[in-house]
Design goal:
Elements (H helix, E strand, L loop, with lengths): L2 H6 L1 H12 L9 H4 L4 H11 L12 H17 L9 H5 L3 H17 L9 H13 L18 H10 L14 H15 L8 H6 L5 H14 L1 H49 L7 H42 L13 H50 L2 H6 L8 H37 L5 H49 L4 H94 L5 H16 L2 H16 L12 H32 L3 H14 L6 E2 L1 H10 L6 H11 L7 E2 H8 L9 H11 L8 H7 L2 H10 L1 E2 L10 E2 H9 L5
Antiparallel strand pairs: 1-2, 3-4
Helix pairs in contact: 4-5, 7-12, 9-10, 13-14, 13-15, 13-27, 14-15, 14-22, 15-17, 15-18, 17-18, 19-20, 19-21, 19-22, 20-22, 21-22, 22-26, 23-26, 27-30, 28-29
Organism: Pundamilia nyererei
Keywords: Actin-binding, Calcium, Coiled coil, Cytoplasm, Metal-binding, Repeat
Protein name: Actinin alpha 1
Length: 820
């Protein structure tokens, strides 16, 4: 389909052929005629391929010509080109269509096919090259090899990008394609030795310019700028190296920030967990327990994840550094993984006793509340009983009483003394409760002590008053009895007073009647007392059912507590072993060698999914645990698992699966970077497992030393220390499988070196020993150019100029110990 176009453009093809034949000191006038004997055709192929062809036949006969053309066609075929229906006879006979087809085949193979940008095909490679070179030019958009070039700006942009001094690009206009095309073609011919193979009028006047013609012409630019191509390759290598460095620096920054944040959170949290200042009320302590529960369920889990992520980032970074031939990352002072592990250990130490302390405090406050209530009840009963007793004891009613009244008062007082003695027990109980409240640090002890003191002081006063009244009554009784005695003496001795005595006897008779009334009053008093006792028993009758009700409620509460215990235990006894089993299975997957690393990764990701899906069961258990704590249940004989066991196990499980997945990912990184086969990997794993005697997936230094000796290493202390510094740069005192693979395959990685980067900078610098900021900005993407400019030291060599930068020390620093 392309032949009619090419027939019209024989002149362009002729120009292309001559641009190459000129290098051999010859040219042709007519394509169909001048290639017929095969001699110029063979010469053209030698020039563009840089190879020697078989010796040509010098005879003039048709057979000699066919032989030469066949040699040319055989050479083309030897380069993997299929020559469909092109035969030597047609070329010798001057068949224009076949000859032009053959020339196009040569162009396609030798001018275009060798173009490869990032492993694409020739056509795509050339298109990609054009797009990259013209990317900075806003009004150029190369999408194909026909209409994208019609306005001529694409050609001008290609020239300006490589030789800006040849074209004043700013003056070109999109709406003036003829000027643009002719400018490009003239400049290319004059300064770049690229023949005019295209015609501006043809391109502007055709709806869709010929694709193959433009492709051939553009390929001439690609070859003309192959020197610049070297610079691009150098720039690409530098970009790749810098990208690795920038990514590693970002990972280092992320690690440092994450480590700082985590350590700061731990620093803030530990004092809170170490604060053992109790609150005064149950409500306040319950709030503390609630806060701790929030900490364990909401605030700590993300930090567990951050800590795990930190270790993963650290391991991935160290793997990438090893694979890119960089020194190991040493975090800043106090931010090593071991520092974080120590801080975390302190956090868990502080946390360990906290919940236990909270529960003991709540238990103490519950006991205190109970005691305080008991104290208040007993004190109130006692105070009600003592009310009015002091006034009663201070009455002087005995001063006007008769002997019989005194005797009655004495009996009444004796009854009171018995009552008082009976109350001694209650006062002692009140004092004992107050004492216990003091010993248990009850917050309201001062008011309890004051009340207790009042009760004791009053009790002592009552005792004193009772004693005084008793003595006064006894004195009065004695006095009245003495007076009575004197009356009798007087009666015997004073007969004249007999009459009066009879009157007195009558009076005494009256007194007897009065005495009987007193006895009646006594009975009434007794009745009243009985009535009181009857009332008391009525109160007792009322209290008994209340007491029964309280006992029934307590029984129901204890039954509910037992149900909660069993509910928690049933789940915990399933979840605990499940976590343990999963931990063991993950350990096995990472140590055993079933299938490829990708198979292990898939297997582990499925595990991770099943573990994450298990989370609702943990949440449900947390809910049951909360109910248990709110019910103030402190023991559970149905399970050995506490909520803390389960929480810690769950956190370890999540951390272990994430860490194991990361280890496998890093092994894949290492395997791919170093081209390690599955067989080699299996051998490494078998050796590692053999010497990992504890079956932990980690070798300690002694095991590693034994392993090295078994492989024939002649190890002195210094040599072993040197090797340990390679496999354990952060001095953790262990050798991971990842580090083991790195060490075993350390010579095989295909990595860039400082020398290669230096050589690339030398290309960009035009062979100078220094480079200028403008050169870096011209050759590298903006962020990478600025990265270099900010970090390169000034060049101090004798051949330096102002603003010269030292790319050599910079290249060395990329691979050595430095702040980069």
């Amino acid at each position: 389909s392309f032949i009619p176009v090419w027939l019209k453009q024989k002149k362009k093809l002729l120009t292309w052929c001559n641009s190459h034949l000129r290098k051999a000191g010859t040219q042709i006038e007519n394509i169909e005629e001048d290639f017929r004997d095969g001699l110029k055709l063979m010469l053209l192929l030698e020039v563009i391929s840089g190879e020697r062809l078989a010796k040509p036949e010098r005879g003039k006969m048709r057979v000699h010509k066919i032989s030469n053309v066949n040699k040319a066609l055989d050479f083309i075929a030897s380069k993997g080109v299929k020559l469909v229906s092109i035969g030597a006879e047609e070329i010798v006979d001057g068949n224009a269509k076949m000859t032009l087809g053959m020339i196009w085949t040569i162009i396609l193979r030798f001018a275009i096919q060798d173009i490869s940008v990032e492993e694409t095909s020739a056509k795509e490679g050339l298109l990609l090259w054009c797009q990259r070179k013209t990317a900075p030019y806003k009004n150029v958009n190369i999408q194909n090899f026909h209409i994208s070039w019609k306005d001529g700006l694409g050609f001008c942009a290609l020239i300006h990008r490589h030789r800006p001094e040849l074209i004043d690009y700013g003056k070109l206009r999109k709406d003036d394609p003829m000027t643009n095309l002719n400018t490009a073609f003239d400049v290319a011919e004059k300064y770049l030795d690229i023949p005019k193979m295209l015609d501006a009028e043809d391109i502007v006047g055709t709806a869709r310019p010929d694709e193959k013609a433009i492709m051939t012409y553009v390929s001439s630019f690609y070859h003309a700028f192959s020197g610049a191509q070297k610079a691009e390759t150098a720039a690409n290598r530098i970009c790749k190296v810098l990208a690795v460095n920038q990514e590693n620096e970002q990972l280092m920054e992320d690690y440092e920030k994450l480590a700082s944040d985590l350590l700061e959170w731990i620093r803030r949290t530990i004092p809170w967990l170490e604060n053992r200042m109790p609150e005064n009320t149950m409500q306040a302590m319950q709030q503390k327990l609630e806060d701790f529960r929030d900490y364990r369920r909401l605030h700590k889990p993300p930090k567990v994840q951050e800590k795990c992520q930190l270790e993963i980032n650290f391991n991935t970074l160290q793997t990438k550094l090893r694979l890119s031939n960089r020194p190991a990352f040493m975090p800043s002072e106090g931010k090593m993984v071991s520092d974080i592990n120590n801080a975390w250990g302190n956090l868990e130490g502080a946390e360990k006793g906290y919940e236990e302390w909270l529960l003991n405090e709540i238990r103490r406050l519950e006991r205190l509340d109970h005691l305080a209530e008991k104290f208040r009840q007993k004190a109130a009963i006692h105070e009600a009983w003592t009310e009015g007793k002091e006034d009663m004891l201070q009455k002087r009613d005995y001063e006007t009483a008769s002997l019989s009244e005194i005797k009655a008062l004495l009996k009444k007082h004796e009854a009171f003394e018995s009552d008082l003695a009976a109350h001694q027990d209650r006062v002692e109980q009140i004092a004992a409760i107050a004492q216990e409240l003091n010993e248990l640090d009850y917050y309201d002890s001062p008011s309890v002590n004051a009340r207790c003191q009042r009760i004791c002081d009053q009790w002592d006063a009552l005792g004193g008053l009772t004693q005084k009244r008793s003595e006064a009554l006894q004195r009065t009784e004695k006095l009245l009895e003495t007076i009575d005695q004197l009356y009798l003496e007087f009666a015997k001795r004073a007969a004249p007073f007999n009459n009066w005595m009879e009157g007195a006897m009558e009076d005494l008779q009256d007194t007897f009647i009065v005495h009987t009334i007193e006895e009646i009053q006594k009975e009434r008093k007794k009745e009243r007392k009985k009535a009181c006792e009857g009332n008391k028993s009525k109160n007792v009758r009322q209290l008994v059912p209340q007491r029964d009700q309280a006992l029934i409620e307590e029984h129901a509460r204890q039954q509910n507590n037992e149900r909660l215990r069993r509910q928690f235990a049933n789940q915990a006894n399933v979840i605990g072993p499940w976590i343990q089993t999963k931990m063991e299975e993950i350990g096995r997957i990472s140590i055993e060698m079933h299938g490829t690393l990708e198979d292990q990764l898939t297997h582990l990701r499925q595990y991770e999914k099943s573990i994450v899906n298990y989370k609702p069961k943990i949440d449900q258990l947390e809910g049951d645990h909360q109910l248990i704590q709110e019910a103030l249940i402190f023991d559970n004989k149905h399970t050995n698992y506490t909520m803390e066991h389960i929480r810690v196990g769950w956190e370890q499980l999540l951390t272990t699966i994430a860490r194991t997945i990361n280890e496998i990912e890093n092994q894949i990184l290492t395997r791919d970077a170093k081209g390690i086969s599955q067989e080699q990997l299996n051998e490494f794993r078998a050796s590692f497992n053999h010497f990992d005697r504890k079956r932990t997936g980690i070798m300690d230094p002694e095991d590693f030393k034994t392993c090295l000796i078994s492989m024939g290493y002649n190890l002195g202390e210094n040599e072993f220390s040197r090797i340990m510094s390679i496999v354990d740069p952060n001095r953790m005192g262990l050798v991971t499988f990842q580090a083991f693979i790195d060490f075993m395959s350390r010579e095989t990685a295909d990595t860039d070196t400082a020398d290669q980067v230096m050589a690339s900078f030398k290309v960009l610098a035009g062979d100078k020993n220094y480079i200028l900021a403008d050169e870096l900005r011209r050759e590298l993407p903006p962020d990478q150019a600025e990265y270099c400019i900010a970090r390169m030291a000034p060049y101090t060599g004798p051949d330096g100029v102002p603003g010269a930068l030292d790319y050599m020390s910079f290249s060395t620093a990329l691979y050595g110990e430095s702040d980069l």
